[in-house]
Amino acid sequence: MFANQLRFRSNLFNGSQASPRWTSPYAYGEDLAEWLRARLQCAEYTLGKPSYAVEGWCMECRSGHESHQIRVSKVGTEQWMIEVARSRSWLASLVLPQPAMDRALADAIHAALLGEPAVREVRWIHQRQTVAARRLE
Q1: Contacts with 70 (C-beta within 8 Å, 6 or more apart), sequence order
Q2: Burial of 31 by CB count in 10 Å (0-12 exposed, 13-18 middle, 19+ buried)?
Q3: 119 pairs with which residues across the strands?
Q4: Which residues contact 52 (CB under 8 A, 6 or more apart)?
Q5: Cα separations in angstroms, 16 against 19, 20, 106, 118
Q6: How do the pLDDT tens digits run along the chain, 137 residues long?
Q7: Exposure winner among 24, 55, 75, 91, fewest CB in 10 A?
């Protein structure tokens, strides 16, 4: 479960032609993941190589002893989403609320997007539910 989502609009990234290497029609976002990775590598973060995930791309981000998962995906016409969550065990994700993401990481992602003229309408959406809490609704 990803705790924090950032959505924005941009025509900078490929949102119309799926890579022939992937069979899913939702395999957009590889170029966004690489773009974000390049900008965060310049900060204090170490990022893994983006890998294909269901409906998007995912990469690990480390800073000191902290580890986060970052997932990017296309969610509409020229609309993109970046989801960020602290890495933790599967059991903890079922019963405990998602801890807040690292504020410095949020600021670094936000600054990278705001520094790109082709990015607009940047907004954060915070989710604070566990899988168990969602099942009770």
Answers
A1: 33, 36, 47, 58, 59, 60, 61, 82, 83, 84, 109
A2: middle
A3: 10
A4: 22, 24, 27, 30, 58
A5: 10, 12, 28, 17
A6: 344 889 999 999 887 776 666 656 667 888 999 999 999 987 688 899 998 887 788 999 988 888 888 999 998 888 999 988 877 666 656 666 666 667 888 889 999 999 999 999 999 886 654 444 333 33
A7: 91
Is the model's pTM score more than 0.90?
A: no
**Nearest to 32, CA basis, from 20, 19, 21:** 19
> In this structure, are strands 66-76 and 119-126 parallel, antiparallel, or unpaired?
unpaired
Cα–Cα distance measured from residue 28 to residue 65, given in angstroms and rounded to the nearest whole number: 30
What residue type is 59 in one-letter code? Answer: M
With tokens 């997007």, the residue in question is 113
**Alpha helices, DSSP H only, in the chain?**
30-41, 90-95, 103-114, 131-136
Residues 6+ apart with CB under 8 A from 58: 33, 50, 51, 52, 69, 70, 71, 72
